[in-house]
Amino acid sequence: MSFEFHNLRSGLATTSSDDQFAQAVLDGLSRNPKRLPSWLIYDDLGSELFTDITQLEGYHPAQCEFEIFEKHKQAVVDVLTKEPFRVIELGAGDGRKTQILLEHFIQSGLIFEYVPIDISEGAVRNLVAELESQFPHSTMSVNGLAADYFDGLQAIKEDSTLRNMVLFLGSTIGNMELPAAETFIRTLRESLNEGDYVMIGFDLMKHPKTLYAAYNDATGVFETFNLHLLDVVNEKLGANFKKDHYVQQGHYNPSTHAVESYIYSTREQVVFIEALGREFYFAAWEPMQAEHSYKYTQHEIETLATTCGYEIVKHLFDVNDHFVDSIWEVKRT
């Protein structure tokens, strides 16, 4: 079994990604109110900071998903064919949760390929090295890709002999508003074959105080993570954000059904971004939205699946029904 890493984010792909980054910042800072998409945060350090968040005791999406994988790992095996298959993880990060499944697949004697895809080159390199260290002689091959999601899927699509199971975990789908989530799910389906599976993590609607506590830790990890966005814009676009002139706070918004994280300017200030050749004015205590984490109902999840051309196979819940990993099968008819 082999353990490989490939960086697909070079040359033209990197240039395109940099252009997309710059355009997202220009569009977001030109809005009223200002709003930057959370994916901008995820350079190598941003990925490490998010790993710190997943280890917080009060961050229930991660804790619930660990519980689900421990409790329902055999149920996932029961869904999969006994023939060789491929597990593709979009936004793999450090892969800690997924290793629960991978180890169980190995112990069950299943032959499979694991393809972690992440925009962070460092995260994927580290994950491949860790898996090679832990499982050097096993039934698992690893092909790590530093790539955007659909670039990575396109790169492996030519090999259609294996049935795929795509993992999109950690409530990442909640970072998208509903129309964007539907577009993503439809595009994902078109990247797959009849009979492939997807397993998507959804954070469920629950007590607003529980949601507030999950996104406002006393240790300040969430604030460090969100304010890292300013460092990334400074580095990539030559901006002069002064991070100590901003603070972060998360709020549950009942109108949008989402926890929204805001970066507040603590004073009146002007930021210049060299790559854009533009200045942007911030009033004292003006908010800039940096995260959007939508909370789903089970009915919304099931509607999303059937509307986008999937058949629901199984819902895997934690003991408190705070979170669900939902397994769907791709249908063409």
Q: What does this protein look like?
A:
- This protein is α/β, with parallel strands linked by helices and 333 residues long.
- It has 2 domains: 23-55 and 221-294, no CATH class; 57-207 and 296-330, Rossmann fold (3-Layer(aba) Sandwich).
- 39% of the residues lie in helices and 27% in strands.
- It is built from 10 helices and 14 strands.
- The protein has an 8-stranded mixed sheet, with helices on both faces.
- Strand 8 (246-253) and strand 9 form a beta hairpin.
- Helix 2 (44-54) runs antiparallel to helix 9 (221-237).
- The longest helix has 20 residues, at 60-79.
- The protein is globular, with a radius of gyration of 20 Å.
- The mean pLDDT is 93.
Distance between the termini: 36 Å
The CATH superfamily label of the largest domain reads Vaccinia Virus protein VP39
Q: Outline, from the CA principal axes?
A: globular
CATH class of the largest domain: Alpha Beta
Strand content: 25-35%
Domain unit count? 2
Q: Can you give the helix content as a percent range?
A: 25-40%
**Second rung of CATH, namely the architecture of the largest domain:** 3-Layer(aba) Sandwich
Provide the succession of SSEs: EHEHHEHEHEHEHEHHEEEEEHEE
- How would you write the strand order of the largest sheet? 1-5-4-3-6-7-14-13
- Per the CATH scheme, the topology name of the largest domain is Rossmann fold
Rg:
20 Å
Mean pLDDT across every amino acid position: 93
Uncertain stretches of 5 or more adjacent residues: none
Number of strands: 14
Major beta-sheet overview: 8 strands, mixed
Global structural class: alpha/beta
Helix tally? 10
